[in-house]
Design a protein that fits this description.
It contains five helices and nine strands; from the N terminus they run E-E-E-E-H-E-E-H-H-E-E-E-H-H. It is of the alpha+beta class. It has one domain: Alpha-Beta Complex (Nucleoside Triphosphate Pyrophosphohydrolase), CATH 3.90.79. Strand 1 and strand 2 form a beta hairpin. Helix 4 packs across helix 5. It starts with 5 loop residues before the first strand and ends in a 16-residue tail after the last helix.
Length: 220
């Protein structure tokens, strides 16, 4: 792989009530010319130096995953902006999913930690240009303790955003069947593939009860 891969943050938003669920989305065609119609978890490009800081400089083999156990931070709280993890989760929420005012008012809160870094060559699923991009993906798990319902709907980045059963995502990934999750979607426009979902599925296989104690402000 190239010495300078693209660095991407993926956030696996989870909620425990009413049942264990994960937030998934479909990339909007208007704002995602390279990956339109692809089932995804929220992602955002970040500087490579920041990715290295989040992972402590640890890297997996090409095509592999490296499990990590980063410190537990908060998002949506007064102290969230003092940690890189909390700041990044809030950034992806306000840029890709919902209004930043909901974070400012404390309507959306939770905890987050770095759980995995993966590395792979990512192709263009549309097949338009055949370009392959070496990618380093840092996966953060964000437990949504408050305001999870506010994340559903759509945004400029995603045509659909919804909570689904965690096992359903794993089944859809194993079958490579995006319509298992979105049965009303056009089968010629939707697909499930890519490093963010494969990393999310990998993380769901971890013991997510293992956390490091937070140093942030308590949830309100």
């Amino acid at each position: 792989m190239s010495e300078n891969p693209a660095a991407v943050l993926s956030v696996v938003f989870l909620r425990r009530e009413p049942e264990p669920q994960i937030l998934v989305a479909v990339r909007a065609q208007e704002t995602n010319p390279r990956h339109p119609g692809v089932v995804s978890v929220p992602t955002m490009r970040i500087p490579l130096a920041l990715a290295a800081e989040l992972t402590g400089g640890e890297l997996p083999d090409d095509g592999g995953y490296l499990d990590l156990l980063g410190p537990c931070r908060t998002f949506g709280t007064a102290g969230a902006g003092t940690s890189i993890e909390g700041l990044l989760v809030e950034s992806i929420l306000s840029k890709k999913i919902t209004s930043g005012s909901m974070l400012e008012s404390g309507e959306i809160q939770g905890t987050c930690s770095v759980r995995c870094v993966s590395k792979a060559n990512v192709d263009d699923p549309t097949g338009r240009d055949g370009a392959i991009e070496p990618t380093l993906m840092v996966t953060v798990v964000a437990e949504c303790e408050k305001g999870g319902k506010c994340l559903e709907g759509n945004s400029a980045s995603y045509s659909q955003i919804t909570w689904i059963d965690q096992q359903d995502l794993m089944t859809s990934w194993r079958r490579r069947d995006a319509q298992f999750l979105f049965p009303d979607a056009n089968p010629f426009e939707i697909c499930i593939r890519g490093l963010c979902v494969s990393s999310a599925v990998h993380v769901l296989g971890q013991d997510l009860s293992l956390i490091l104690k937070t140093t942030d402000a308590d949830l309100g």
